[in-house]
Every structure is written in C-alpha cells, then in structure tokens.
C-alpha cells in the first residue's frame, strides 16, 4: 500500500484563468498511478471556509458543474457553466483516501487555479462597427461645418452696401445708399434718373453711376444771382469701379 501511494500523482496545470461573465470555465486536473480508495473532489478555497463544487462519489449533479470526461478514473477536468462574479476564487483538485475510521482524509492536492471574472468582451465585429460609425459621424460634422461656413461667406458677399453720408458744402449731411449692383434694383430706374443729369465726360474705369435724389433746399439769399437761373434739386456722385 505504501508503494501504491508513492506512485500516485495529481496534476493541476492551470495557475491562473480569466473568463468573461456568462461563459464556461474549464478547470483541468489529471491523475496517474494508484492510490487508496477515496474520491477526487474540487474545492473552492482552502481550509475551514472551503466549498465543495464537485465530488466524484456523489450521484447528484451540482447546479452548473459537469465532468469533461464522464466516468474517467484519471481525468477529473470539470466545466463550470454560466460563470458569474461570485465564481471568483482559487480552486483546488484534491484526492481523498478513507482512513480506518471511515473518514475521508486529504491525500494529495493540486497547486490551485486562481480564477478571475471580467465583463463580456467586445467581439471584433462590434469594435469595427464602432470605429466606422465614429468615422462617419466625424465626416458628417465636417460637412455641416463646411456648409455653415460657405453660407456665412456668401451672406457677407451678397449683402447690400451700407449707407454712406455725403457732405454737400455747408449743407447738412445727406445719407446715401448704393443703388448700382444692389439685387432687386431695376436698371430702368437708374436710366430714367440719370437722363436728367448734365452730360459728364466718361472714363473707361467708371462703370456705374450712383445717384441720389436730395430733398429741396431752402431758398438762398438773392445775392448776385443772374436773372432766369433757377436752383437745382439734383446732385450727382460718381464712384470709380473697383
């Protein structure tokens, strides 16, 4: 019997194992040689606080633990299904033998397997889809920003000319607003108004005539005015084309 016990070996190869929540955990344990009668068990923890999660001699099955090789006398690898955070701990494969008093005593145990549980990992397809979605959102944001910039730029270019103030000698300043080139101003109005103006020498650089109809001025003192000369109500302003 002593020779038989010396030939027995229990091998627990896994030092650490990490598994995701909901997956199946596999704990490996094999034996060789012959030992005295007694079961092989899997314990969670060691000492007084240990818990038996598998017993070779028990006929009733544990809730979520199954043997990888059923009824094998050398392979005691087990599967733990639907792993949860509560399954974190260190697991030991232990060979027991019966003493003369009929009690099971530890004969040999493995080095233990430390089990850690993490959240479900993202599959590669989900990661790739997330990257593509982020890239498309970035392109959409750039397109919207470009559209807003172009609208603002076009609004500044097409906006009407601001009002300008022209001082006519000692008279009060008169506000003028650009007419030529302003959207919605008919060209016929410009032609009709400009026909009353005295002819002026034209230049190739002057493409537009800007005209403003001023309010009638108060009568000026009659000092040296030649007979038959009437005061004019018109003024012309010529702006060189840019």
TrEMBL record:
Identification of the protein by name: SHPS1 phosphatase
Keywords from the UniProt entry: Disulfide bond, Glycoprotein, Immunoglobulin domain, Membrane, Signal, Transmembrane, Transmembrane helix
Region (Disordered) residue spans: 187-242
InterPro entries listed in its UniProt record: Ig-like_CS_Receptor, Ig-like_dom, Ig-like_dom_sf, Ig-like_fold, Ig_sub, Ig_V-set
UniProt entry tagged with the keyword Cytoplasm: no
Coiled coil (residue ranges): none
SMART domains, alphabetized: IG (SM00409), IGv (SM00406)
Pfam families linked: V-set
Name of the gene encoding the protein in the UniProt record: Sirpa
Transmembrane segments: 126-149
Residue ranges constituting the Ig-like domain according to the UniProt record: 22-93
Source organism of this protein record: Tichodroma muraria
